[in-house]
């Protein structure tokens, strides 16, 4: 690709093309395939352009995964989580969270943890996890607000209880090698999440 062609892709479009190439390599070949020369070739640009935006391959991978997580969060928020009852809403949220964990950028998130080599990278990855947690809480607040309006609960539970559904799915996801069955999801909702929410509603 000539420099003149490269220059026509500026700003967000150029970065998005580089992110797409990075994410594609992560999915097909893993973190070890990521280097600036390979990314530049896959994105049809020059290494100097890649170096202009990111200092290290980890920086690029971090930004690419974060971008996909933000896109997935936008899709997640656009869903209608009101399925008629608190229990059905929790199952519905869990189903979509499992889908994102299996197919979305969340399954690549663990790559970042395995590649962290210094405190700064740990802090940045922890920040990304905090952002994901904030998104989980917003979704749960929406579900809980509907439950309050229907008279199923009287008040919101604490933060730790709001996150139980997502944390239990993540734990099962790791324990079962990425497999969380619908039966297991219903067990999590019926025997852990819903009782905890109802308990705090009665306090």
UniProtKB/TrEMBL annotation:
<dbReference type="InterPro" id="IPR009057">
    <property type="entry name" value="Homeodomain-like_sf"/>
</dbReference>
<dbReference type="GO" id="GO:0003700">
    <property type="term" value="F:DNA-binding transcription factor activity"/>
</dbReference>
<protein>
    <submittedName>
        <fullName>TetR family transcriptional regulator</fullName>
    </submittedName>
</protein>
<dbReference type="InterPro" id="IPR050109">
    <property type="entry name" value="HTH-type_TetR-like_transc_reg"/>
</dbReference>
<keyword id="KW-0238">DNA-binding</keyword>
<dbReference type="InterPro" id="IPR001647">
    <property type="entry name" value="HTH_TetR"/>
</dbReference>
<dbReference type="InterPro" id="IPR036271">
    <property type="entry name" value="Tet_transcr_reg_TetR-rel_C_sf"/>
</dbReference>
<feature type="domain" description="HTH tetR-type">
    <location>
        <begin position="12"/>
        <end position="72"/>
    </location>
</feature>
<feature type="DNA-binding region" description="H-T-H motif">
    <location>
        <begin position="35"/>
        <end position="54"/>
    </location>
</feature>
<dbReference type="Pfam" id="PF00440">
    <property type="entry name" value="TetR_N"/>
</dbReference>
<dbReference type="GO" id="GO:0000976">
    <property type="term" value="F:transcription cis-regulatory region binding"/>
</dbReference>
């Amino acid at each position: 690709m000539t420099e003149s062609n490269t220059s026509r892709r500026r700003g967000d479009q150029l970065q998005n093309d580089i992110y797409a190439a990075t994410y594609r390599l992560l999915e097909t070949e893993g973190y070890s395939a990521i280097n600036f020369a390979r990314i530049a070739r896959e994105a049809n640009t020059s290494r100097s352009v890649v170096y202009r935006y990111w200092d290290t391959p980890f920086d690029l991978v971090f930004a690419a995964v974060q971008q996909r997580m933000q896109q997935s969060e936008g899709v997640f928020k656009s869903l209608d989580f009101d399925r008629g009852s608190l229990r059905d809403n929790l199952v519905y949220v869990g189903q979509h969270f499992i889908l994102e964990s299996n197919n979305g950028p969340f399954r690549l998130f663990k790559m970042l943890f395995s590649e962290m080599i210094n405190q700064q990278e740990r802090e940045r990855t922890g920040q990304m996890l905090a952002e994901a947690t904030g998104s989980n809480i917003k979704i749960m607040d929406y579900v809980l607000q509907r439950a309050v309006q229907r008279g199923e609960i009287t008040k919101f539970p604490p933060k730790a209880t709001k996150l139980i559904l997502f944390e239990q799915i993540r734990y099962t996801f790791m324990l079962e090698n990425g497999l969380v069955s619908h039966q297991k999801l219903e067990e999590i909702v019926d025997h852990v999440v819903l009782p905890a929410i109802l308990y705090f509603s009665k306090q």
